[in-house]
Write a structure and sequence with these properties.
The complex is a heterodimer of chains A (319) and B (278). With 319 residues, chain A is an all-alpha fold. Chain A is built from 12 helices and 2 strands; from the N terminus they run ββαααααααααααα. Chain A starts with 27 loop residues before the first strand and ends with a helix. Chain B is globular. The C terminus of chain B is likely disordered. The chains are: A mainly alpha (319), B mainly alpha (278). Chain A: InterPro entries: MetI-like (IPR000515), MetI-like_sf (IPR035906).
């Protein structure tokens, strides 16, 4: 078989049309022939059976009184779960905490990652080392990240208290994760730490899209660093920023493991993110239907917020 | 002019150092805590470096929890999940790139949409389905879940790599009378190898690191993966035996750190091309 037949590349490059086929045109469904279905199904079936299917099932559970380990038949209860949720102040408390957490982590992540990406885009010495180090949090399991920061925050043996004491910033050791006003900011710092690498890498990719000539021309015209950022870098970066911010917000709002390990939702529910609340409802108290309703409310609110966010940003673009 | 840019340079290095300190110091602290002796862990003054490095915490960690067993579980689950998900994602990614089809578009759309749903909405039905199949508390059940959970990202990464394979090579194969399957196996697959390795490793690390599904689906300690076993080192009241906790955490993160070190450059370029094109 000769692989490099000359003249075979006459077809316009990059077009998605399949190469010419030697056999007579085969049966096609939805733009796919038999071979393609054969190749696609091994991936498609699991997705349908174990992702799309359960998701629809989960949505339907939200309208039932399903419980774990119960022998009685599950009943359809209409919107009863949602009516209960509306009055469940604990759920809305956790929802508020979730929003505070997601907004602050996403914003801080973005600002810090942007700074780091700009630096890593410079021609600095040891850049490869910095780039590698910047990825480290990404490689770590979220449980390990949680454990690690518990060690940092530890009241007696933690490095944070020891350092602050050496600097004479505190006189007595602080219990960071147990203080009612401190716990949420403390876990937010961990959230930012854990999520910075992805954001940095994506922003770094965006920065490499910025036309260098424009930058140089603006610099020659005497534009300040800030002006150059506003006029040249930002416009090129914006689509990437939009995508990563939206995704980060969703991921952060739905996050679980970090805070589960750090505080378990405490003290007194101060760090109980919605996912922790729903997890306990489902797997500690067995309220499957009710927990599913929570999940559905979370999706709905996120979807609305995202729609508003994206529409505003797109409008700005049009102007 | 030179001094001005000199100060700017210095400022940049200073900022970079601050970032790296922020990123690195928790990890250094984890390592330091893991190698401290029990006496030193008990002392009130926390010091940066262990005065008298010891491996006591590591032996203690193995004594306190079935750590070796859980490492094996993690290894089995992560390898199976990575191998299966990439094996089924390669042909699918190929079809999604080379055919303009409604199914491909729908699948890509689903990949994006599925990112939005909180896991709790998926895990409850999965729990019920796996329970009726007697796959709760079983590694097989967890592998199934991880395969599906890995698929979207594997598909996404692989599509980028497939797109980079010149279509002209496939046309040549088609003219020579190769079917789709033959073309995929003998022409596309060899060219895909580096991307394949990256995707397998990434899927492995994702499954190795996963916590939520493992926490819900695995009940008995001898079945649990490392990330779940780690939480047992933290007591009911939040009290923890710090040394063994640090030692176990360090062991749980070593494989993924190693893979990331090997993979770093390819991963970054893969994600960059994805981010820029997508």
């Amino acid at each position: 078989m000769s692989v490099t037949a000359p003249g075979a590349s006459a077809r316009p490059k990059g077009a998605g049309t399949p190469p010419p086929r030697s056999a007579p045109e085969r049966r096609r469904a939805l733009g796919l022939d038999r071979d393609a279905w054969f190749l696609l199904l091994p991936a498609l079936l699991p997705i349908l059976l174990l992702s799309a299917g359960p998701l629809l099932y989960g949505i339907s559970l939200a309208f039932t009184d399903a419980q774990s380990g119960r022998t009685a038949v599950t009943k359809f209860t209409g919107v009863a779960n949602f009516a209960d949720l509306r009055l469940d102040s604990l759920f809305w408390d956790s929802f508020k905490i979730g929003l505070v957490w997601a907004v602050s982590v996403t914003a801080l992540q973005f600002l810090l990652a942007l700074g780091l990406a700009v630096l890593l885009n410079q021609n600095l010495r040891f850049r490869w080392l910095a780039r590698t180090l910047a990825l480290v949090p990404w490689a770590m399991p979220e449980v390990v990240v949680g454990v690690m920061w518990r060690l940092v925050y530890n009241q007696d043996a933690g490095i944070l208290n020891a350092t602050l004491r050496d600097l004479h910033l505190i006189s007595e050791n602080v219990d960071w994760l147990a203080g009612v006003s401190l716990a949420l900011p403390a876990v937010i710092v961990v959230g930012v730490w854990a999520g910075m690498p992805q954001t940095t890498v994506v922003l770094l990719a965006g920065l490499q899209n910025v036309p260098l000539e424009l930058h140089e021309a603006a610099a020659l015209d005497g534009a300040s660093v800030w002006r150059r950022f506003r006029a040249v870098t930002w416009p090129a970066l914006k689509p990437v920023v939009l995508a990563i911010t939206a995704l980060n917000f969703i991921w952060n709002f739905n996050s679980f493991g970090l805070v589960y390990v750090l505080t378990g939702g405490g003290p007194g529910g101060q760090t109980r993110l919605p996912m922790l609340f729903a997890y306990e409802e489902a797997f500690r108290y067995g309220q499957f239907g009710y927990a599913a309703a929570m999940g559905l409310v979370m999706v709905a609110v996120i979807a609305v917020l995202l729609a508003v966010f994206l529409r505003n940003r797109l409008k700005e673009d049009e102007q | 002019m030179t001094t001005r840019s000199g100060t700017a340079r210095a400022g940049q290095y200073l900022a970079l150092v601050c970032y790296l300190v922020f990123l690195a110091f928790p990890l250094l602290w984890l390592v330091s805590t893991a190698f401290k002796s029990p006496q030193e862990l008990g002392s009130v003054d926390a010091s940066w470096l262990p005065h008298d490095p010891s491996l006591d915490s590591f032996t203690a960690a193995f004594g306190q929890q079935p750590l070796a067993r859980s490492a094996l579980n993690s290894l089995i689950v992560a390898s199976c999940a990575a191998a299966i998900s990439v094996a089924i994602a390669v042909p699918a990614a190929y079809v999604m790139v080379r055919y303009r089809s409604a199914v491909g578009k729908a699948a890509t759309g689903w990949i994006l949409v599925s990112q939005m749903f909180p896991f709790v909405l998926v895990i409850i039905p999965l729990f019920l389905v796996l329970k009726s199949l007697h796959l709760i508390n079983s590694l097989t059940g967890l592998v199934l879940v991880y395969v599906v959970w890995n698929l979207p990202f594997a598909l996404w990464m692989l599509q980028g790599y497939v797109r980079a394979v010149p279509a002209s090579l496939e046309e040549a194969a088609a003219i020579d009378g190769c079917g789709r399957l033959r073309t995929l196996l003998s022409v596309v697959l060899p060219l895909l190898t580096p991307g394949l390795v990256a995707t397998v490793m990434f899927s492995f690390v994702t499954a190795w690191n996963e916590f939520f599904f493992a926490l819900v689906l695995l009940k008995s300690p001898e079945k649990q993966t490392m990330s779940v076993i780690l939480t047992h080192f933290i007591g009911a009241e939040g009290a923890a035996d710090l040394g063994p906790l640090a030692a176990a955490a360090l062991m749980a993160t070593l494989p993924s750190l190693l893979f990331f070190a090997l993979l770093q450059r390819r991963l970054v370029s893969g994600i960059m091309s994805g981010a820029v094109k997508g």
